[in-house]
Specification:
heterotetramer, A alpha/beta, B alpha+beta, C alpha+beta, A: alpha/beta, Rossmann fold, 11 strands, B: alpha+beta, three-stranded antiparallel sheet, 2 helices, about 35% strand, elongated, binds adenosine-5'-diphosphate, binds magnesium ion
Chain lengths: ~260, ~80, ~750, ~80
């Protein structure tokens, strides 16, 4: 995986400048400013916005696709944004090993683009849900989770109408083998505060309680919980920093190799 | 030319909205309801006179945008086919 | 709207009003002109029944940056900072009764536009809702739809919905009330006014295209009785497009960083007609509009329809003549339309053209200011003599508390506010569930707090005192989180003003509100009146709602209602009197909406607020929660249920009289706080300074809520100065030993019934 | 028996989703798209053999629950009518 993230690491190796970020802005994105704020004011790293219509992305180390209602989430959440010019550039960026983090609507967009497997359907309760949940980290070998301990439970908010994850149909039987077959990696699952995964702690009906998924290579992550909403103590929780700190650490240490 | 596009969840994909409607209908006394599947129906007006070309374009729209092949199937119907 | 009959009736005017119009014009208005008058002189737009009375509300204060009259009011957050808080509350009752989802959604859209029209970025939304009893299918349908509508719009535009209130009562069965408030932030210098200044400047309409939405809609619907509604109103239903609104917000805020913009106004009720004539009136200019240039969504629209349309997501922007390209550039970046439809002119008239042809030309002041202000006949009921109903005191008061906590009027609102994104923007420091929401101001240590409160039942029993209680409650809710109240905006929901008893209660509500605002020093920066909330024989209660905003100097020192530490003392700041008149206890347990309404002790309200605010600012308090609906027993139960660590408490209440009154009495002037025992002396010092009673009630801990009542006179449990914590423990133990246990309720059960109340 | 129910917005009622789709399709190169209206298509399975009774029941469901008469129209089609 490290090898495949070489585009980012290549850049890092020959410059001593700090890890840099871009936040994509689609018409209707609404967590763009929140992500920007965390990168700039909390992580204190350089960050810029990239507009949906840009055919290219600036020379950064990580691209964040923020939450919101891109194009009103009309047709399907993320469907229209997935077809905008900037996504072509992000696809290339990801193919070169660049780090891409999709949060909430960003996750939906990544699925619609095909950068992540599966689809996000409407919550089983047919309601928008905004509340704190717990997510168990299932895979610490990604740049997004390397600061976490195996099975660590993070407390984070969700806020979505379409977070009910479905794997591609051929893998959707729900059995253990099917999970093995799943062509991405399950990085986080909804769980109880104690870390137990069950239907009771699954807020939206997601297959296998999936809350966060990465591609096989691990450089593209989609997650429904919002780390940018819990990266400051004042906001009643700072577990989101595990995600952001993982990224920075990965880049500063492993990224140099 | 008017084209109707139907988009529905693939068989086997859980349909929370359909399931909720089924339950609500039964609760309202429609006990004969066995199942409900919810799909989309898009009516598209095209500046195109040729039926076949219109159909092909609409299919292309489905492939490119309107349907998500992971979970959905689509069908294109020309206006006249719908009685 | 009847088809036959005199021409004025078709546009909802009276013969007398028609006469005034002819006199002022010196001629008869043509069809279109008459239509414009009908709109501008409707109750909804002209406030003709309420204007005279509203003048008595106090609007002055050193912090006030913008009082009533603009799109929204504004206050300065703190004397030494240039942050301006812009806010407004408005009703969308009638549209929500016709189509709850879209009615509520477009209500949210409208109030947002009022706020960003002032140049402020919207940072929070609130709502105040009233429905019939939720077990009635129609009421449930309206309730679910309204909640869905608010969620669908607010969530999509990315403005968090952080607070509100919901009550259910038969009085609202046919006429639900949907009031929404928006708060925005900007700097003092960046506030923009809705003014069409500068002759020759261009007038743009930006955003969505114009359709037939709302024709004969909001303004006329809300200006007459609402019974034959139904069928013919249907095409009038406005559908909101929150995605378009989001783009409009970003585009307008970006635009306003450019000084080419002279004025901006939303297109709300009465659409172009109202926006054009009001911006001109404020600037003392005129406006000429060419309806042919207005982008349309539908074919065959008449000029009248274009001028009347209430299509959503549109704004009127007035720009310096030579800077039009700048406007177009900004809007095209956001993929929105911006079309020049006219210009500012010297003659103080609204001139409507269709291409070359002039269709209407009316003096602006006759449209905006000249509608008659009525002093409608008013009948005052003498409510002071309202008798206390005779009810038996229930045997099991614990069971009473349980049923109250599970009642839709008092239960947990989580199932509602979980459907609202209340965190987007990452400013929400105190979330829904507390007495007031607190939002940080990024780039400052300060925070904004806000609450909405209303109470129709109290105003039904005693309009003036009811209104006083509402203002006091909002004031107290802000103080409870540690905030200093800065200003309020109100929304007055009433039945038909043509009925003398309705008019009487309206006048008394305004008087009560004015008195409370003076006594508590809270200026009114705006308001909204919604009349004709009645159908057939059923009228809504007189239901004023207030939205009050406040400031905190240090966002980290806000306080929340849930108990937080075992061993903390539970202290009552203020005094219990056991006043049951108009209480939820009588309503829920005894099905009685009756009794005299408690008098507000304004000096006590000020004192408890000062004490709690000062204590919060010093970091003394672990928690703080005001006593309101359901009395002190309910407040204590909420402190337990909202406790992050699920902590119970054991308390002793003292007082004479009936236990039910002691537990469930609803007089104001009380805030329950908790704090570590060693901080009690500091709190007491504060209290003495403001001459405010404080009483130690008990201690936080355990897994249940245990309430005792002190027998006879007993020990005096108000705290002696300088006593240390070990004394307190003994003192409390002694008090409990001699007291009678009224209830011992496991927390799990309380939380469960509270959660199930709305499901 | 399978019944299809179509629910669409009344003429003149704003359809923001349709409008956004129209723009997006054009941006994707489908310039011939003049307009899009978005509606729902429900497929209901009924334990009922009589076509007329099934149709009447489905209509009743639309009245009672499925359509919002204030802004929506509905149409009921029996399976065989759809080619
Ligand atoms: N419709 C609503 N939307 C959002 N929050 C709500 C709504 N109704 C109630 N709440 C929240 O639930 C909590 C309890 O409401 P309420 O009992 O009315 O508070 P209070 O008595 O302190 O005024 C408050 O924090 C309030 O903001
Ligand atoms: Mg309160």
């Amino acid at each position: 995986m490290r090898g495949s993230a070489s585009a980012a690491s290549g850049r890092a190796a020959d410059s001593q400048s700090p890890m840099s970020f871009a936040v994509v802005v689609f018409p209707g994105s609404n967590c763009d400013r929140d992500c920007y704020h965390v990168i700039r004011e909390v992580l204190r790293r350089p960050v810029c916005y990239v507009a949906h219509a840009e055919p290219q992305i600036p020379d950064v180390d990580c691209v964040i696709i923020p939450g919101g209602f891109s194009y009103g989430d009309y047709l399907r959440a993320g469907a229209l944004a997935a077809r905008s010019p900037v996504m072509g550039a992000i696809r290339d960026f990801a193919a070169g090993g660049g780090l891409v983090l999709g949060i909430c609507n960003g996750f939906q967009i990544l699925c619609e683009t095909g950068l992540l497997p599966g689809a996000l359907m409407v919550n089983t309760a047919l309601q928008f849900i905004c509340r704190w949940v717990h997510m168990r980290i299932e895979d610490v070998n990604t740049p997004f989770t390397r600061d976490c301990k195996p099975n660590q439970v993070l407390r984070m908010p969700i806020a979505h109408y379409e977070g009910n994850f479905r794997p591609p149909p051929e893998q959707g039987t729900g059995s253990a083998e099917a999970e093995d077959l799943f062509c991405g990696r399950i990085v986080g699952r909804y769980c109880s505060p104690g870390g137990e995964v069950s239907d009771n702690s699954n807020p939206n009906g997601s297959w296998s309680s999936v809350a966060a998924v990465s591609n096989r290579e691990g450089n593209v992550l989609g997650m429904m919980p919002h780390p940018e909403r819990c990266s400051e103590h004042m906001l009643k929780g700072s577990d989101g920093l595990y995600i952001f700190r993982s990224l920075v650490q990965w880049w500063e240490e492993d990224g140099y190799e | 030319m008017e084209v109707s596009v139907f988009i529905q969840l693939k068989d086997g994909v859980l349909d929370p909205e359909g399931e909720t409607l089924r339950q609500s209908l039964r609760r309202l006394g429609f006990h004969e309801v066995d199942g409900v599947r919810v799909g989309k129906h898009l009516q598209i007006s095209l500046a195109e006179d040729n039926t076949e070309r219109a159909r092909r374009r609409a299919e292309q729209m489905c492939e490119d945008l309107l349907a998500n092949p992971v979970i959905e199937d689509y069908q294109v119907r020309m206006k006249e086919e719908l009685s | 709207m009847s088809e036959s009959g005199p021409r004025w009736e078709k546009v909802g005017l009276t013969e007398g009003e028609y006469g005034i119009i002819c006199r002022q014009l010196g001629r008869q208005p043509n069809e279109l002109e008459l239509g414009l008058y009908g709109l501008m002189w409707s109750e909804h737009c002209s406030y003709k029944s309420s204007r005279k009375h509203l003048a008595s509300l106090p609007t002055k204060g050193s912090q006030v940056l913008q009082g009533p009259g603009e799109n929204a009011g504004a206050v300065r957050l703190a004397a030494d900072e240039d942050t301006a808080v812009v806010f407004r509350i408005e009703s969308h009752n009638h549209p929500s009764a016709v189509e709850p989802v879209q009615g509520a959604a477009t209500g949210v859209g409208g109030i947002l536009r009022d706020v960003f029209a002032m140049g402020a970025r919207p940072i929070a939304l609130f709502n105040s809702l009233r429905f019939g009893n939720p077990d009635c299918p129609r009421a449930r349908y309206l309730f679910d739809g309204v909640v869905r509508g608010i969620a669908s719009y607010g969530n999509c535009v990315g403005v968090p919905t952080v607070g509100g209130e919901i009550y259910f009562d038969e009085a609202y069965k046919d006429n639900p009330l949907v009031n929404v408030m928006c708060i925005g932030i900007t700097t003092v210098e960046s506030i923009v006014r809705g003014r069409a200044s500068g002759v020759g400047n261009s007038v743009f309409v930006v955003g969505a295209a114009t359709g037939r939405d709302g024709i004969h809609g909001a303004s006329l619907l809300a200006s007459r009785e609402f019974d034959d509604g139904g069928e013919d109103m249907r095409p009038a239903v406005q559908v909101g497009d929150p995605f378009c609104e989001k783009l409009l917000i970003e585009a307008c805020l970006q635009l306003l960083t450019d000084d080419a913009v002279v004025g901006i106004n939303d297109l709300g009720a009465a659409g172009l007609t109202s926006a054009a004539s009001e911006t001109a009136a404020r600037a003392g200019t005129g406006i000429e509009i060419d309806v042919a240039r207005v982008p349309r969504r539908e074919e065959g629209m008449t000029p009248y329809e274009v001028m009347l349309s209430e299509s959503q997501e549109r704004m009127l922007v007035i720009v310096e003549g030579d800077r039009e390209q700048a406007i177009r550039d900004v809007f095209s970046r956001w993929e929105l339309e911006a079309v020049r439809i006219g210009e500012v002119i010297e003659d103080t008239v609204l001139r409507v053209r269709d291409g070359e042809q002039v269709l209407a030309e009316l003096p602006v002041d006759t449209l905006v200011d000249a509608a008659p202000a009525y002093c409608r006949p008013a009948e005052y009921r003498d409510r002071g003599s309202e008798e206390m109903p005779l009810v038996d005191e229930p045997e099991d008061l614990g069971a009473v508390l349980v049923s109250m906590l599970g009642h839709p009027n008092l239960c947990d609102r989580r199932s509602v506010y979980q459907q609202f994104d209340h965190m987007v923007g990452t400013n929400t420091v105190v979330s829904p569930g507390a007495d007031a929401a607190v939002l940080r101001v990024k780039g400052s240590r300060r925070a904004v707090a806000a609450t909405v409160d209303g109470n129709g039942m109290l105003c039904h029993l005693d309009p003036a005192r009811g209104a006083e209680n509402i203002v006091a409650e909002a004031y107290r809710n802000l103080s409870a989180v540690g905030a200093r109240p800065l200003g309020l905006s109100n929304c007055l929901n009433f039945a038909s003003p043509e009925k003398p008893e309705v008019m009487g209660s309206f006048i008394q509500v305004v008087e009560g509100m004015a008195r409370a605002c003076r006594k508590l020093d809270v200026p009114v920066t705006g308001g909204n009146v919604s009349f004709y909330n009645e159908t057939g024989q059923r009228q809504v209660y007189p239901t004023p709602t207030v939205g009050m905003v406040g400031g905190l100097d240090d966002v980290r020192l806000s306080v929340e209602p849930g108990f937080s530490s075992r061993g903390d003392l539970v202290v009552l700041v203020g005094r219990s009197l056991g006043h049951l008149g108009g209480s939820q206890y009588l309503n829920i347990i005894h099905q009685e909406v009756s009794g005299p309404v408690a008098e507000v002790d304004f000096s006590l309200e000020r004192a408890i607020s000062e004490v709690v605010r000062a204590a919060a600012a010093e970091g003394l308090l672990s928690s703080s929660h005001d006593v309101s609906d359901g009395g002190i027993a309910t407040a204590l139960a909420e402190c337990c249920c909202l406790s992050p660590g699920r902590l119970g408490a054991s308390v002793v209440l003292a007082g004479t009289g009936r236990s039910d009154a002691l537990l469930f009495g609803e007089e104001g002037g009380r805030i329950v706080v908790s704090l570590p025992p060693q901080r009690l002396p500091s709190l007491c010092r504060r209290a003495r300074k403001f001459d405010c009673p404080v009483t130690v009630l008990g201690m936080v801990g355990g897994k249940s809520l245990v309430i005792h009542r002190q027998m006879g006179e007993g020990d005096d449990i108000s705290p002696p100065a300088g006593s240390d914590s070990s004394q307190w423990r003994k003192h409390l133990q002694r008090a409990q030993m001699t007291a009678e246990k009224l209830m011992d309720l496991p927390l799990d059960k309380l939380m469960q019934v509270r959660e199930d109340g709305l499901i």
